[in-house]
Amino acid sequence: MREPLSPEMFDPMCPSSAFPIQIGGKWTGMLIRCLEHGPRRFTELRNALPAVTPKVLSETLRSMERDGLLTRTVHDENPPRVEYELTGLGRSLLDLIEASRAWAAEHFHTLLKARDEHDLESSP
Questions:
Q1: At 40, is the secondary structure helix, strand, or coil?
Q2: Which of 7, 32, 59, 96 is the most buried (most CB within 10 A)?
């Protein structure tokens, strides 16, 4: 049995929208991390990422499937069970995501400070 996903797996102090390195859309990197240890259902992914709306989550998953990063499997059950799983191409991004996370842990506060200083100097 896989461990359940938790929203605590993502640092709320490091929002992806502020990060200068982005893989795919805003949520793609986080979804890759959610799928790192095996297939997950939509609800599991939604629970791990409470800030993403169901519509945006669906759009991101469709985009990732189109890019070949994951597969979507519909199991013939009632109601149908749908699972998402990383492909080899999707898995190839895990090292890059980990390197980006390490960089962020080391430099994120410096990045935010630089932005704040720039904004203060640039404001009228």
A1: strand
A2: 32
**Confidence at residue 124, expressed as pLDDT on a 0 to 100 scale:** 75
Q: pTM for the whole thing?
A: 0.79
Q: What is the pLDDT of residues 15-49, one digit of tens each?
A: 555 666 667 888 999 999 999 999 999 999 999 99
**3-7, 41-45, 77-81: least confidently modelled range:** 3-7
Cβ neighbors of 103 (< 8 A, separation 6 or more) are 21
Residue 13, token pair as written in the block: 């102090």
Q: How many residues in the chain? A: 124
**Counting runs of H as helices and runs of E as strands, what totals does the chain give?**
5, 3
The token duo for 100 is 């980006």
Residue 82 CB: number of other CB atoms within 10 A?
15
68: left (phi over 0), alpha (psi -120 to 50) or beta: left
Q: In the chain, what are the domain boundaries?
A: 16-119
Query: For every residue of 74-96, which 3-state class applies, written as one string?
Result: EECCCCCEEEEEECHHHHCCHHH
